[in-house]
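Researcher: Going back to the complex we discussed earlier. I've cleaned up the inputs and rechecked each line, so this should be the final set. Can you rerun the prediction on the complete assembly and write out the structure?
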Amino acid sequence: MVVPGLLWLAVFAVVPLGFLATVSLWKHSLFGLTTAVSLDAYRIIANEPVYALVLWQTLRIALVTTLLSLVISYPLAMFLARLKGHHKTLAVVLVFLPFWTSYVVRTFVWLPMLGRSGVVNSTLLALGIIDKPLDWLLYNEGTVYVGLVYVYTLYMTLPIYLSLDRLDPKLVEAANDLGATPLQAFRRVVLPLTMPGIWSGCTMVFLLSCGAYVTPQLLGGTSGHMLGNVIAAQFLHTNNWPLGAALSLILVVVVIGFLFVAGRRLGLQQLFMGERR
Amino acid sequence: MRMPWLLRGYAAVFYAFLYMPIGVMVVLSFNDSQIMGFPLKGFTLRWYGEALAEGALLRALWNSFVVGFVASLVATALALMIALGLRHRVPFRGAVLPVILIPIITPGIVSGVLLYVSFGVLGLPYGLSTAVIAAHVTWVLPFAFLTLYPQLHRFDRSIEEAAMDLGATPWVVFRRVILPLIRPAIIATLLFSFTLSFDEFIRTLFVVGSQRTTPVYLWLLIAEQMAPFLPAVGVMIMLVSIAVAGVGFWVSGRAAKLAARVEG
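Model: Rerun complete. Updated structure for the full complex:
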C-alpha cells in the first residue's frame, strides 16, 4: 500500500536531486553543456564573493522575516485563542481568506500600495508631508520583508494559535493565584508550553523564505536579491545549468542543516504535524 | 479570559494591514485610468471586459482547473494508500515520514528547477500534462498525507477487526467500513489539494513550456507589461481561488456533520 506513493516521491523528488547533483558537475561553456565531470561550478561559487554574499543575504532575509512574523503573529494568535464561538470562527476565517489565493496575487498587491502613484505616496502627498513621490518605498530589502511577512505570516499564526488554543487556561489562572505577574505567567507558563507551535511556525516561514523567488523578484530590486533569483537566472537567462544546479544544491544542504538542528529539538513529526512526542 | 483592549487594538491593526492591499487592488480594478494607481478618475468595468476579452485568462483558468483536478485526485489517492498502509507493519517505518516530507522541505525555487533539469536531461517534453502534473502531485502529496493521516488514526481499529472476523475481505472492509468513516476527510483533502495545486506557481513556471496556468499567466502579465487591467485580473483570480476554497470549506463541514449524524 505504501509503495506507489513512495515510488512516486522517489521518481519525482529524490531521483531529480541526483540529476541536479550530476548536472552541477558538468561543464558549461559558450557551446553549451558538456557532460565532462568538472568542479567548475563550485569553483566559481567559491571564488566569486558575490555568491557567498547572496547566500548570506538570503539567510539573513529569511531569518529576519521569520523573527518579524513571530513577533507579528504571536499577539494575533493570542487574540484568536481568547475568542469564543462565532466570533472565533469568523476571526479565524478572516485570517485565512487572503491566503486562499495565489501568492503571486498577494505579492502583486504591494505594487499599487508602495508604487510612485500608490496609496502611501498619494496619501503623503495629499497631506502635504512630502512634495514629490518617495522612490525608496519599493525595490529594496525592506520591501522584501514587507512582502515575505505578508505572504507567509499565516504559517506562523496557525501553529502558534493551535498550541495556544490547546493550552489549559487553568494553568495561567493557577500561576496568577500563586502571585505571578501577567508577564511572569506568560514567560514561565504560556511561552514554554507554546514552544512547539513557535518552532513549527518558525521552521515553515524560514523554509518558505529561503526558497523565495516571486517576492524578491517583484519587490526586491537589486538590493533585495535572494538566492532564488540568482538560481532562476541561471536557467532562464544565462543558461548556465551547472552553476544553477550547484547553487540549488547548496541551498538544499543549508536548509536541511537548519532543519536538522530544529528537528533535534522537536522531531520531524512534531514540527510538521503538531503532535506532542 | 477577558480580552485586554491592547490585544483588541492590535488585532484591528493586523486585519487592517491584511486587507488594505487587497482592498486597494479591488478599488483600482474599477478605476478609469490608464495608470495603475491614484488619483481615482471614475468608475469603470472596462478593465474586466478587456481582461476577459483576451481569452488568455480563461484558457489559463481552464488549464489550472484541469491540472488541479487531476493532481488532487492522484495525490489524494497516493496519500490515502500510504496512510492506510502505515496502519499495518511496514519495514523502515521511521524513514517513511522524512521521505514524504521531502517535497515540503525542498526550497520552492529548487523544486521548480528539479524537474526542469531532470526532464531536460532526459529529453522529456515540458508541459501541463507531463511535468506540471508530476510537479503538482509531488508538491500536494505531503499535504494530503498530513491532513489524512491523523483522521485515519482517530477511529477505532476494532471496528475494522470485527469486520475481518466476520469474514470480510480487505477490499470489502475498505469499501464498507473504512471508506464511509473517512469520506469527509477524503473530500476535505481533495479540495485542499485542489486549492494548493490551483495556486501553485514556482514549481510550475519552469516546466510549463508554452502553456499557462493562472498564476503563471498573471506573473508573465506583470513581468511583461504593467497593463492597466492587472488589478481586474488579480481580483478575478482571487475570487476564483476563494470560491473554490469556500466550497471546500462548506463541503467538508457538511460532510463532517453528515458523518457525525451517521455515527451518532
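Model: Worth noting: Chain A touches chain B through 81 residues (CB under 8 Å).
Researcher: Good, that matches what I expected from the previous run.
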